[in-house]
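User: Design a sequence. Structure:
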């Protein structure tokens, strides 16, 4: 009997040790994982459009950066495009809700800077497209250089007639810089120039320039639908815009990597939220024509999803 009791005690001891080992194997990795993983940062992303479809590539870049850097993203859109007051109110709500940093395409950079001034030291702001005073950084091409080069592309084709410059961005400083630089180049070359906030009811002049992706897209679509015989010069890399360039609806366009823009904006926002230094330089851009679409160097620019899936 003593032998049986001793054997039972040994078996119980062995089971206890095994049970403890199982518990430790589950708990200890969790403890160390908690030490390794940084706290997820909550970032709020706010555009200035009601439709975010033109920002799909930028959003993919943002999500890639967030996944790599330990952040979670909350995307917001306006009910009225370009409404600076609504944008400010929504961003203040996000700050009060605990956002660690903001990534913004500002509709009205000057007023937004004033509205967020007291909050930016604790909730950094990174902007796309337009610089903003007090922001932790801006991700954008050199807007003045872009507008100037796009105008020079028009001058290569110009054989007389007026150029219509679409002034569609309201108080968005970055887009305005593109327009003003293009206007200066055209005027210096003797091209008659007219600004307008929208297309005319009848056929426009023979030369039309748009300085933001949404304006480029709807101008090209209307030109196609109405059968207008005008040359359009615009910006953007959205699928619909690239398709218009391929069909000849756009004579030339300024293009940069929206995917890279989104990635860099979130990376800089994470750095700023963690109190780290970071540096941003203007995004490189290219002026593309129809014959340039399938050049190898433009594949990642115009088709980022296809290019990444082929790797």
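Assistant: Done.
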């Amino acid at each position: 009997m003593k032998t049986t009791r001793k054997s039972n005690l040994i078996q119980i001891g062995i089971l206890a040790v095994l049970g403890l080992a199982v518990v430790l194997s589950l708990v200890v990795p969790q403890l160390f994982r908690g030490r390794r993983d940084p706290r997820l940062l909550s970032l709020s992303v706010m555009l200035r459009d009601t439709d975010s479809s033109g920002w799909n590539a930028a959003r993919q870049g943002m999500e890639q950066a967030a996944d790599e850097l330990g952040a979670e993203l909350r995307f917001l859109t306006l009910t009225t495009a370009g409404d600076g007051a609504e944008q400010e109110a929504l961003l203040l709500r996000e700050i009060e809700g605990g956002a660690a940093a903001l990534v913004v395409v500002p509709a009205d950079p000057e007023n937004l800077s004033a509205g967020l001034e007291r909050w930016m030291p604790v909730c950094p702001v990174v902007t796309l497209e337009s610089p903003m005073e007090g922001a932790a950084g801006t991700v954008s091409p050199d807007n003045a250089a872009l507008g100037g080069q796009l105008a020079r592309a028009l001058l290569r084709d110009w054989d007389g007639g007026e150029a219509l410059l679409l002034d569609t961005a309201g108080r968005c400083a970055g887009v305005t810089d593109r327009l003003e630089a293009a206007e200066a180049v055209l005027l210096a070359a003797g091209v008659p120039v007219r600004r307008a906030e929208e297309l005319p009811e009848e056929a426009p002049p023979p030369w039309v320039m748009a300085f933001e992706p949404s304006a480029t897209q709807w101008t090209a679509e209307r030109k196609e639908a109405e059968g207008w015989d005008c040359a359009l010069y615009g910006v953007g890399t959205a699928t619909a815009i690239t398709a218009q360039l391929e069909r000849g609806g756009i004579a030339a366009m300024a293009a940069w990597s929206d995917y890279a823009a989104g990635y860099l904006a979130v990376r800089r926002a994470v750095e700023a939220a963690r109190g780290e230094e970071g540096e941003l330089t203007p995004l490189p851009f290219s002026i593309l024509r129809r014959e340039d679409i399938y050049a190898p160097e433009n594949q990642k620019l115009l088709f980022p999803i296809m290019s990444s899936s082929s790797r």
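Residues 24 and 31 are 10 Å apart (CA to CA). The two ends are 71 Å apart (CA to CA).
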